[in-house]
Amino acid sequence: MSERSLRGTQLGSRSLESDAGVEPAPRQIAEYVCPDGHTFTVPFSVEAEIPPIWESSTNGTGILKGAEEPNGEPEKHVRSHWDMLLERRTPEELQVLLDERLELLRAGRLNQRSSSRK
């Protein structure tokens, strides 16, 4: 009987609530200017602290209109695995290691230990 009572109600595809009497959260609009002159706006909550810099999806980084350009400390560079490897070895040393490993691989001696266990 429950299957017949739900038939035709489109359960899950449409909400039975309406937007009547619903107040959206108060917002403030921040305007940012890119170095090339492009401007864009971003809505923020009234309670939010507006950042002085915002990354635009199309034109790069924008600076909050009316604010000074932040001259704080530069962001710390995130070191990748490659950067850390280059701190320990020179590119010439890495090339020698690569050539040695490729030679072992081509000779079929690279995984000798794991193949002897089988």
Automatic annotation (TrEMBL):
Keywords: Transcription, Transcription regulation. The keyword Transcription applies. Pfam families: RbpA. Residues 1-24, 55-76 are annotated as: Disordered. InterPro entries: RbpA_sf (IPR038638), RNApol-bd_RbpA (IPR025182). It comes from the Bacteria. Binds to RNA polymerase (RNAP), stimulating transcription from principal, but not alternative sigma factor promoters. Forms a complex with the RNAP catalytic core and with free principal sigma factors. Belongs to the RNA polymerase-binding protein RbpA family. HAMAP family: RbpA. This is RNA polymerase-binding protein RbpA. The lineage of its organism: Bacteria, Bacillati, Actinomycetota, Actinomycetes, Micrococcales. The gene is rbpA.
